[in-house]
Design brief:
The structure holds 2 protein chains of 2 kinds.
Chain A: E1 6-9, H1 17-25, E2 31-34, H2 38-46, E3 57-60, E4 63-66, H3 68-78, H4 86-109, H5 114-143, H6 155-170, H7 179-189, H8 192-197, H9 210-220
Parallel strand pairs in A: 1-2
Antiparallel strand pairs in A: 1-3, 3-4
Chain B: E1 6-10, H1 17-25, E2 31-35, H2 38-46, E3 57-60, E4 63-66, H3 68-78, H4 86-108, H5 114-143, H6 155-170, H7 179-189, H8 192-198, H9 210-220
Parallel strand pairs in B: 1-2
Antiparallel strand pairs in B: 1-3, 3-4
Classes of the chains: A alpha+beta, B alpha+beta.
Chain lengths: 222, 221
C-alpha cells in the first residue's frame, strides 16, 4: 500500500497551502513535518532533499518534489482533477496560474513592513475585484454549469475557492457584486472533502501572523 | 490544415521569449503581432482577447491562451516535449519551474533603475552559480544522459538552454565550472531546429539594452 504523501514546510500557509487544499479536496490523507529552525532547514538541504534548496517539499510516490506548481500539477493529474483532455487541461492551467498570481501577492503581503501591509492588502482586494473575480463570474455565467471546466470538479475549482476565502479574510464583502461566485463558494464548500477541510481541527492553516513571519525570516535568513 | 500560431507581445524578450524558443525547437512556424503602443494593448483588452488583461497571449488551435506556463505546457504536450508519463512530467515541471524562477530575475533586469542593476546582477550571478546551475549539473551527472529527463528531449532542456544563453550574456564566465551544462548547451544548440533559431534573422529577440528599454518606455508611456 502506498505511503501517505509527506509535506515539509513552515507551520503556516505560504506556498504550501494550495497543496494542502488540493490533497484535502482529493480526499488524500497526508503527513506534515514543520520547519521551525534554521538547523532543520540546513539538514534538509544537506540531505539533498531540496533540488533548489527550497521548500515546499512533498514526498510522494517515491519522489522528492519541490516547486509548488510542479507539485500541484502532479497531484491534479494523479487524482483526476485535471480535466478530460488537453483543451480542458490548458483552461485549468490558465485559471489556476492566474489565481496563483493573486495568491502569491497575498502570501508575500504578510512580509511587508507593518505600515505598508494595509495598503498592500487594499491593492490585492482591488485587483481581485477588477481583474480576477470578473473573469470567473463570466465563465460561470457563460456556461451556467456548477464547475469552472468541463462540468466536473477540478483543481481550478479548488484553487478559486481557496482564493475567494483568502481575499474575504482581507475584505469580507468582496463578493457582493459577484452572485455566481457567491453560489460557487457555497457549492464547493459543501463538497464533503472540502467541508471536512474547512472545519476546525483540520490541517488547514490560519492566516499568517507575526510569529509565522518571524519563523520564516529566521529560517530563511532574510 | 491548422493555422499558424500567432503570438501577441512587445517586440522584445520578456515573458514571450521562452514560448518562441519552445515553438522554434518543436519546428513550429509562428506569426507575431507586436504591441507597439499603449493603444495596441488597450485594443486587445477591449476586444476581450486577454483573459487577465495581460500578455503574453497566443492564438493557437482556435483558442486565445494566456499565462506563460499554461501556454508552454500546452505546446509541450502537443509537440511531445513533456515526457512519457506523469512522473517524467513532474520532473520536467520541477526543472522548468527552477529555470523560470531564475529567469524571472533576469527578465526584469533590463528594466531596473540604474541604481538597482548592480544588486540584481550580483543576485543573478550568485543564484545561478550557487543554486540553480549546480542542481542541473548534478541531475545530468546522476544519470549521464544527453537530456535532463527520460533520455529524451523535453521542454526542460529547451528552457534550460535558453537560460544558459541569457545568463552568459550577463556573466560570460558563469559556465566555467559546469562542464555538463556546457555540453548540454552545445548539444541542444546543434539540434537542427534550435540551430536555425540561433542564426541571425530568426524570430529570436536580442538582449534588451538601454536603448531598447528607453524606446519601449517612450511608446508605452
Amino acid at each position: 500500500m502506498a505511503a501517505k504523501p509527506k509535506l515539509w514546510y513552515f507551520c503556516g500557509r505560504g506556498r504550501m497551502e494550495s497543496i494542502r487544499w488540493l490533497l484535502a479536496a482529493a480526499g488524500v490523507e497526508f503527513e506534515e513535518e514543520f520547519i521551525e529552525t534554521r538547523e532543520h532547514y540546513e539538514k534538509l538541504k544537506k540531505d539533498g532533499c531540496l533540488l533548489f534548496g527550497q521548500v515546499p517539499l512533498v514526498e510522494i510516490d517515491g519522489m522528492m518534489l519541490t516547486q509548488t506548481r510542479a507539485i500541484l500539477s502532479y497531484l491534479a493529474a494523479k487524482y483526476n482533477l485535471y480535466g478530460k483532455d488537453l483543451k480542458e487541461r490548458v483552461r485549468i492551467d490558465m485559471y489556476t496560474d492566474g489565481i496563483l498570481d493573486l495568491m502569491l501577492m497575498i502570501a508575500l503581503a504578510a512580509f511587508q513592513p507593518p505600515g505598508e501591509k494595509e495598503e498592500k492588502d487594499a491593492a490585492i482586494v482591488k485587483k481581485a475585484q477588477a481583474r480576477y473575480f470578473p473573469v470567473f463570474e463570466k465563465i460561470l455565467k457563460d456556461h451556467g454549469e456548477d464547475f469552472l471546466v468541463g462540468n466536473k470538479f477540478s483543481w481550478a475549482d479548488v484553487q478559486l475557492l481557496e482564493a475567494i476565502l483568502m481575499v474575504e479574510e482581507l475584505d469580507a464583502p468582496v463578493l457582493s457584486d459577484f452572485p455566481l461566485l457567491k453560489a460557487f463558494k457555497t457549492r464547493i464548500s459543501n463538497i464533503p472533502t472540502i467541508k471536512k477541510f474547512l472545519q476546525p481541527g483540520s490541517q488547514r492553516k490560519p492566516p499568517p501572523d507575526s510569529r509565522y513571519v518571524e519563523v520564516v525570516r529566521t529560517v530563511l535568513q532574510f | 490544415m491548422a493555422r499558424t500560431p500567432i503570438l501577441h507581445y512587445f517586440d522584445g524578450r520578456g515573458r514571450m521569449e521562452s514560448i518562441r524558443w519552445l515553438l522554434a525547437a518543436a519546428g513550429v512556424e509562428f506569426e507575431e503581432k507586436f504591441l507597439k503602443t499603449r493603444e495596441d494593448l488597450e485594443k486587445l483588452r477591449k476586444d476581450g482577447s486577454l483573459m487577465f488583461q495581460q500578455v503574453p497571449m497566443v492564438e493557437i488551435d482556435g483558442m486565445k491562451l494566456v499565462q506563460t506556463r499554461a501556454i508552454l505546457n500546452y505546446i509541450a504536450t502537443k509537440y511531445n516535449l513533456y515526457g512519457k508519463d506523469v512522473k517524467e512530467r513532474a520532473l520536467i515541471d520541477m526543472y522548468s519551474e527552477g529555470v523560470a524562477d531564475l529567469n524571472e530575475i533576469i527578465l526584469h533586469y533590463p528594466f531596473l533603475p540604474p541604481g538597482d542593476k548592480d544588486g540584481s546582477l550580483t543576485q543573478i550571478k550568485e543564484k545561478s552559480r550557487n543554486r540553480y546551475f549546480p542542481a542541473f549539473e548534478k541531475v545530468l551527472k546522476s544519470h549521464g544522459q544527453d537530456y535532463l529527463v527520460g533520455n529524451r528531449l523535453s521542454k526542460a532542456d529547451i528552457h534550460l538552454t535558453e537560460l544558459l544563453y541569457h545568463t552568459e550574456e550577463l556573466d560570460p564566465s558563469v559556465l566555467a565550472n559546469f562542464p555538463l551544462l556546457k555540453a548540454l548547451k552545445t548539444r541542444i544548440s546543434n539540434l537542427p531546429t534550435v540551430k536555425k533559431f540561433l542564426q541571425p534573422g530568426s524570430q529570436r529577440k536580442p538582449f534588451e539594452d538601454e536603448k531598447f528599454v528607453e524606446e519601449l518606455k517612450k511608446s508605452f508611456g
